[in-house]
Design goal:
It is found in: Cytoplasm. This protein is of the alpha/beta class and 326 residues long. It is built from 9 helices and 9 strands. Bound molecules: guanosine-5'-triphosphate (GTP) and magnesium ion.
C-alpha cells in the first residue's frame, strides 16, 4: 500500500539533486581581491591567473600588453560556463600601498560589500540578492625584504576578521629555490608569531583517503604561495607558454617547479572555492552583522537617552510654567 511505501522511502535522498539543480540554475558567484605593496605584480597575476588564461583556447597577447600602475579599485567580472555550470567570477584589483596610499581602501571596500548584502537581505527583494561579498583576499608579500614588513602585519591584522587571507610570496622568480623555501618558513613563523589569522585549510577528517590528506598537507606547507606573473607569451623551443624570459633562461608561470601558480589556481577554483564561501558567510559576515547590531544598539540607546533628556526638559518647563501661573 501507499502507507508502507511511504515508510520505506520518504524521498529526501533526492535533496542533493534538488540543491544542485537550484544552484546550477542560479549559477555560482565568487569574488577574489588582491592587496599589497605597489609594484609587486598584483595586476599582472590577476591577468595571468584568470582573465585571459582560464581556458586552453585563450588568446594571449603576443606583444607585451602594458599594465600600468593601478590607481583605482577596478572590478573585472567574467562569466564562465563549464559542463552547464555557470560561474560568475569577479576579481577586484586595488592600488598597491605606497608612500601616498594606505590600506584603508581595501578594508572599506570589503565593509561596503557586507553592508550592501546586509541591506539587501533585510529588504524586500531577498530572493534576487547579488552576492558581492569578498570571499578571498590574495595578499602579496615582497620577496625583497627580510620576511614580513610592518605594513604587512598591520594590514593583514586589520583585515583578518573580515576576509579569508591567502598570503602570496610575490615575484618568486627573483629568488633561488633555497631562498623561496627559507622565506616561506620565516613568513609562516611570523604570521603565527604576530597572531595573524590567515585562511585555514579545513582539517581533514580521519576517514579521508591518504592521497587527499597528503595533498592538503602540501597546500599547508606551501603558504605563502610563491607566484610569478607574466602578461606575455614566450616562444621557446617550439612551445608557447606564459612566462618571463631572461638572458639566462625562461621561467614558466604554469610550471609547478617554477612557481605555486597552478596550485593556487586549482585551490581557488577546483578544491576550496566552496569552503572559502562558507567561511565568508558563516564567520566573516556573521562577525560583521554582530558588530553592526552592537553599533545599532549603541546608537539606539544614545538616541533614547537624548529623547529622555528632551522629555525631562519639557517636564521642567511645564512645571516652571505651572508654578509661574499659580
Ligand atoms: N620579476 C617579476 N616581475 C613581475 C612579476 N609580476 C609582475 N612583474 C612586473 O612588475 C611590474 C609591476 O607589476 P604590476 O602588476 O603592475 O604590479 P601591481 O602590484 O599591480 O602594482 P600597483 O598597481 O602599483 O599596486 C611590471 O613591470 C611587471 O611586469 C613577477 O612575477 N616577476
Ligand atoms: Mg596594479
Amino acid at each position: 500500500s501507499i502507507a508502507t511505501f511511504d515508510k520505506e522511502y520518504v524521498g529526501f535522498a533526492t535533496l542533493p539533486n534538488q540543491v544542485h539543480r537550484k544552484t546550477v540554475k542560479k549559477g555560482f558567484t565568487f569574488t577574489l581581491m588582491v592587496a599589497g605593496e605597489t609594484g609587486l605584480g598584483k595586476s599582472t597575476l590577476i591577468n595571468s591567473l584568470f582573465l585571459t588564461d582560464l581556458y586552453r583556447d585563450r588568446k594571449v597577447p603576443n606583444a607585451e600588453e602594458r599594465i600600468g600602475q593601478t590607481v583605482d579599485i577596478i572590478k573585472h567580472t567574467i562569466g564562465i560556463e563549464e559542463k552547464g555550470i555557470k560561474l560568475r567570477l569577479s576579481i577586484i584589483d586595488t592600488p598597491g600601498f605606497g608612500d601616498a596610499v594606505n590600506n584603508t581602501h581595501v578594508e572599506d571596500y570589503i565593509d561596503q560589500q557586507f553592508e550592501q548584502y546586509f541591506r539587501d537581505e533585510s529588504g524586500l527583494n531577498r530572493k534576487n540578492i547579488q552576492d558581492n561579498r569578498v570571499h578571498c583576499l590574495l595578499y602579496f608579500i615582497s620577496p625583497f625584504g627580510h620576511g614580513l614588513r610592518p605594513i604587512d602585519v598591520e594590514c593583514m591584522k586589520a583585515l583578518h576578521e573580515k576576509v579569508n587571507i591567502i598570503p602570496l610570496l610575490a615575484k618568486a622568480d627573483s629568488l633561488t629555490q633555497a631562498e623561496v623555501y627559507s622565506k616561506k618558513l620565516k613568513m609562516r613563523d611570523e604570521i603565527k608569531q604576530f597572531g595573524i589569522n590567515i585562511y585555514q585549510f579545513p582539517e581533514c577528517d580521519s576517514d579521508e583517503d591518504e592521497d587527499f590528506k597528503r595533498q592538503e598537507q602540501i597546500l599547508k606547507d606551501s603558504i605563502p604561495f610563491a607566484v610569478i606573473g607574466s602578461n606575455i607569451q614566450v616562444d621557446s623551443k617550439g612551445r608557447k607558454f606564459r612566462g618571463r624570459s631572461y638572458p639566462w633562461g625562461v621561467v614558466e608561470v604554469e610550471n609547478p617547479i617554477h612557481s605555486d601558480f597552478l596550485m593556487l589556481r586549482n585551490m581557488l577554483v577546483r578544491t576550496h572555492m566552496q569552503d572559502l564561501k562558507d567561511v565568508t558567510r558563516e564567520i566573516h559576515y556573521e562577525n560583521y552583522r554582530a558588530n553592526r547590531s552592537a553599533t545599532d544598539f549603541l546608537l539606539l540607546s544614545f538616541q533614547l537617552r537624548k529623547m529622555q533628556e528632551v522629555l525631562e526638559r519639557i517636564q521642567e518647563q511645564m512645571q516652571q510654567s505651572q508654578t509661574g501661573t499659580c
